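Handout, section 3.2

Students often ask what a structure token actually looks like in practice. Rather than define it abstractly, here is a full record for asparagine synthase (glutamine-hydrolyzing). The first block is the sequence as you would receive it.
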Amino acid sequence: MITVKEYRGHIRNWEELCERLGIDLSLSREEREKEILIKAYQTWGYEMADHMYGMFAFALWDDEEKKLFCLRDQFGTKPFYYYETEDGQLLYGTMIRDIMKQPGFVKELNEEMLQLYLSLTYVAGENTFFRGLKKLMPGRYLIWQNGRLTIKRYWKPEFHPDESKSLEDWADEIHSTIQEIMPEVKTADEKVESFLSGGVDSSYVLAMSDAEQADGCGYEEERFDESVLAEKTARILGRKFSRSLITPEQFFDIVPYVMYNMEQPLGDASAIVFTLGCNATAEHTKICYSGEGADEFFGGYNMYRNAERYGENLKTFYVGNTNIMKEDEKKKILKKYDPDVLPIEVAREIYEETEGLDPLSKMSDVDIQIWLEGDIYLNVDKMSKAAGLEIRMPLTDRRIFDIASRMPSRYKVNEEQNKVAFRTAAAKVLPEEIAFRKKLGFIVPIRIWMADDRYNQDVRRLFNSEIAEKFFDVEAINEIFADYVGGNSDNWRKVWTIYTFLVWYEEYFIKR
């Protein structure tokens, strides 16, 4: 007998799977997805994920073989953790807090992660901030049998450029594939809204969906406010638009809530805005689309246009989208510094896998395997769950990545534009001014807010606390903060990254 012990996710091709596996289509979503997992395991065994599209992490117990089988989807859109106790038991689940409550878990800080965190601003790789607690990485499955743990990789990103197609051919394939995917992302009876920024990804998803309403966040500071562009896009597409105005008071007040629900520190300031957006959207819908995935697949970041210039040097420094503190600075501010703990080591295996590929493919692969899993998907999953909102990401799909994996890099970026083929596809349903709008990123006015004494009092408190004394040279981190407040706004990320760690530590090791 097979039992579903743990499951988080949404299986897109459920209808096809039900027909293939002989499952009653009239079952509730919860019942049918459990049946799909059980029957898929019985039919395809460890290769079951090859037949499934969607977002998922799960654990199955095989009573006959006394075996636990746990699997995380190809891109890591849903988290999965495990912990071996001193008496030889395995604790596991999709929530760290649930594992912490179980007998045998010993809560200890893995201080080594702090050194990596100060550069990356998120938790990269399989280790976590809790000693002994590990992440099951994307595209892997775990087997626990007779007290023995085995982890195997069933999927990894691979790139095989196809030079036979034109730009229009690639755009047509992207568009037809999204047309194929969108009907699977929701059932006819589900009411779905869609997050919308000023960018092409969320605009394209909205245009291809039947969502009647789009949701966005805005600020009083006009130069940071994308919601004006988002509302214009919604109107062009004939959809309603709900704007959540975010104030600095709201932003800073919710930081402890975010760090607690994130379960590990995250120094991405947009996560706070995303949380406020989730909370506001959850007031009028329970399901929402979001556009994550396309940037990393199709060359969406402006820095990707420098890929050729970086060349072979990439493997000496490129560890993903963020790298905000160099080693000499960390050595200066940390009380414990280990010269062998280097961010580039997290990406070492990826560079070995991508040997011989062009520089853009290497950068994309690093971001797909490290940045997406450690920052973007973690944020989407944790904060939507905390709000009681389910987020579905149509562009994060193996069928979409399959196109990107075959597309030559010149159709992803050129000297003038990023995400060239993807934008060309989007222009089939969006005005050119939207499809080819310059990427702004999910910008937040924190670089000006945090310098304001009306809002930064908690930052000052923690920078001068016993917690800070435990890990940092307090004088050194306050020099960084003073330099930032004094006008060096480039330091805001360093201040924010230190602050978010201190808030998280206070939530998990002082208050609880």
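Discussion prompt for tutorial groups: Residues 145 and 314 are 40 Å apart (CA to CA). How would you have guessed this from the sequence alone?
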